[in-house]
Amino acid sequence: MTSDVVERLICFCRYLQDPCHVAQFQQLCGVRGTFTIKSAESETKHSVNGACSGQCQGDCAADETKTQGLPGQRLRKSLNDGNVKQDECLGDLNGPRIFESDRTEVADGSEKGSRDRVKPLRRNSLTGDVGQEFIIENKFLFYLFTIGTELGNEMFFIVFFPFLMWNVDPYVSRQLIVVWAWVLFLGQSTKDLVRWTRPASPPVVKVEVFYNTEYSMPSTHAMTGTAMPFSLFMLTCSRWEYPFMFGLSVALCWSVLVCISRIYMGMHSVLEVIMGFLYSILILAVIQPMLDDIDTFYLTHSYAPLVVLLVHVGFSLVAFSLDSWSTSRGDTAQALATAAGTALASRLAHQLVLQTDPPEEALPLALPLIDGALLGRSIMRLLVGVAVLLAVRAAMKVVAIPLACKLFGVPSDDVRKARQHAQVEISYRFIVYGPVAYSCVFLVPLLFGFLGLS
User: Fold this and answer.
1) CA torsion through residues 61, 64, 68, 72, sign
2) Cα–Cα distance for residue pair 74/299, rounded to 1 Å
3) For a Cys staple, 219 with which of 34, 50, 268, 371, CB 3.0–4.6 Å?
4) Shortest CA distance to 275 belongs to which of 210, 201, 194?
């Protein structure tokens, strides 16, 4: 009985992991690949996930005791045991496979000129690869899911957190940063332990290639894109007066948009997105009830600064010890550095009574009337504040790499190579983004007071 349940579970996971489902969804959304035969053969040879898994057959269970490979590849091998040939998967999609210099034939037999071809917006973070051209037939969905995937990117949160800090509620922003840092750390670390590669291309069209050479299980975009809106909703639903269903609907739409965008971009299978969603819910269930205690500890305990530095630097070292260097581990260190800087600055602001939270008897807070004056003040705060943060970031970047290289005896003539040393990259992230977070929480609000923008 137990073995039947396990076999059915593996069959179901194999079905959800099948890259053909990703390719079919992309075609449904109007994404057409321009694959060459050569690229298909190359991908089949080099990709761990290079074969397209087929439908579940009677022999779908794998003997895990005989499976060799990296951690997590036992299940990966089980998921791929029933694979069909790449050509069969491509044939089922009825999509283009041959790329010609003057035209591309698409599924309906029409021809699209080269003006309709686009390439991924950013190069691969490790290899510098620009990716292959593809055709977008539905521009609305392309822009919608591009926005969706940006809602899970670090650059969005670099603007989102300061906006909350300066214009909405510092209390909520502080606690969201804690959630963001630990969700990202746990997600990236799990990727490095499981070590599954991205969905095979072909059949999948790589609309994004920035993270293509990094591991994919679970989807950290799905994790942050789920944890952030739902944590924001839970932190504000009893703190601010607004319709409960409105807040829940916004959180759900945010999460769904980010999750689906990762399939559209060709970066994750359905299984990886679902696991990212569920993993973030599990993390929230554990950490959300602890946020008030964590915040109180950061603001008031005498040993908080030492604990903050030791914990955040220590877990950054753990993240870099799990696998070889990549930008994803740098992003993890950046999130932990941001959280550390925020905690230290919040403590100082609290000790100097520069930042106070409303008393419990004043809750829930009424939403202010949004008028021209409020919008103008909020926009000015954001523009001035972000300008200061960018200046701090630029200044710290100038000194961070040379200083870290000198401290650890690493040659600094090749910056990219130097940053592949864990001690240099971690130092760089903390030297740059710790002060940026510190400025966001402590220095910029002081500047607002001086400029009359408080």
Assistant:
1) positive
2) 45
3) 268
4) 194
Instruction: Check: CB of residue 141 under 8 Å from CB of residue 264.
Output: yes
Active-site residue, from 268, 301, 312, 350: 268
Query: Tokens in use for 274?
Result: 């679902």
Run of H or E including 111: strand 111-112
pLDDT beyond 80 at 62: no
Is 268 a catalytic site residue? yes
Q: Which residues contact 433 (CB under 8 A, 6 or more apart)?
A: 334, 337, 338, 341, 393
Residue 412 in contact with residue 440, Cβ under 8 Å? no
pLDDT confidence of 327, banded at 50, 70, 90?
low
- Angle at CA of residue 276, ends 336 and 285, nearest 5°: 70
pLDDT for the residue numbered 124:
62
- Cβ-Cβ contacts under 8 Å for 110 (sequence gap 6 or more): none
Rounded distance, CA 90 to CA 20, Å?
8
The whole-angstrom separation of Cα 61 and Cα 354 is 61
200 vs 82, residue with greater confidence:
200
323 pLDDT band (50/70/90 cuts)?
Answer: low
Phi, psi (rounded to 5 degrees) for 105? -90, 130
Residue 230 has pLDDT above 90, yes or no: yes
312 is catalytic: no
Structure tokens, 187: 């997600």
- Rounded distance between C-alpha atoms, residue 33 and residue 199, angstroms: 14
- Is pLDDT above 70 for 92? no
- pLDDT at residue 223, rounded to an integer: 93
- Which pLDDT belongs to residue 119? 66
Q: What is the pLDDT of residues 240-283, one digit of tens each?
A: 888 999 999 999 999 999 999 999 988 888 999 999 999 999 99
The gap from C-alpha 99 to its chain's centroid, in whole angstroms, comes to 32
CA–CA dist 421, 423 (Å, integer): 6
Four-CA torsion 242, 244, 245, 250, nearest 10 degrees? 70
Give the C-alpha separation, 176 to 293, whole Å: 14
Burial class for 285, CB neighbours closer than 10 Å (0-12, 13-18, 19+): exposed
- Please check whether residue 102 is in contact with residue 114, taking contact to mean a CB–CB distance below 8 angstroms: yes
Output b/e per residue, 94-121; b: 16+ Cβ within 10 A: ebbbebeeeebbbeeeeebeeebbeebe
Selecting among 21, 46, 221, 301, the annotated active-site residue is 221
Single out the residue of 127, 125, 118, 124 nearest to residue 146, CA to CA. 118
Contact (CB, 8 A) for 52 and 92 = no
